[in-house]
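---------- Forwarded message ----------

FYI, see the TIGR03032 family protein record below. Original note from H. follows.
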Amino acid sequence: MVQSINKTYIDVNEEKTREVKYDYSNSFTNILNTLKISLFFSTYQAGKLGIVTAKNNALKLDFHNFERAMGMAISPTQMAVGGKDWVYLLKNDAGLAPQIDPPGTYNACFLTRGAQYTGDISIHDLAWGNDELWMVNTRFSCLCTLTNNYNFLPQWRPNFVSEIAAEDRCHLNGMAMVDGMPKYVTVLGKTNTKGGWRDNKVSGGCILEVPSSRVITEGLSMPHSPRMYQGKLWVLNSGRGELIAVDVATGKQEKIVSLPGYTRGLAIFNNCAFIGLSQVRETAVFSNLPIQNSLKDEIKCGIAIVDLMTRQIVGCFQFTEGVEEIFDVQIAPISSAMINGPHVTKDNADQIWSLPKSAATSIQFI
């Protein structure tokens, strides 16, 4: 059975209210309920971060404004969101969460605690590493971390990229972590010229090992979102709308499932892969992709759940109006999370203040 819902949000780009329509299967709700998780997704087109939670048989969707929201990194205690010029940092106040109206609804509350200015570096994947945040800096073709002294601190670049330059030379976009450090990355081409990857985007994609830059596998179509899980590297072969598994020792590719959308954004939890699906825009970047020839008018936007054991789609959430692309998908092992973001007025939400317990008796208001 499929449920259909209408919702509205304020489009900050067009300064008007936009209607959102979406459908979801009962199985989608059941899986979120069973796993006791909150599902986060970003959409840079609308400048939104969405949270999907489930309680009993009901599914809840909330939107929050983050300008050109792209990569996210989430743990039970903290969260980072990559935006147009900023990286937003949020902390979970788990003690405060149950007190938020209606009481007892939430068990996590991510409050905005700061933002660091990077400039427009086209941040893609983010991940928490060993005590720091790692970022895929697509514009400068490198992996980097944050620093108070500079816009960003370059940490690694592919060995075929000759210098750090704001030229998006290979469209470095995805990052898989192992033992708290980046281990594998996706690029759309092994190129060293400004936008050079565009010439062979259909089959020029490959996966590189970090720090060696060794090519693990190649011939991919606009790959995104590499993730290590149970000893395998899982990757979205986006231009073909596929989830694939890669043997990092041999480079052998294995197609797990084909999906009805441009696949981008992958989170894996308890043998379930949560995969973002996007419609393909009529631009030069997305023209002539294999998925356009195979699916044509059937390309969808939403999130699919794939059982990695059976290789079947077991749940689906689809936007039918108002949202056309998904960038990132992340899971928090928290049944009912909420966000108090940097733009609460635009979110039509109440501002939440978090103070130390001592403040109630030590601060005098005048």
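H. also flagged this: The longest strand covers residues 2-11.
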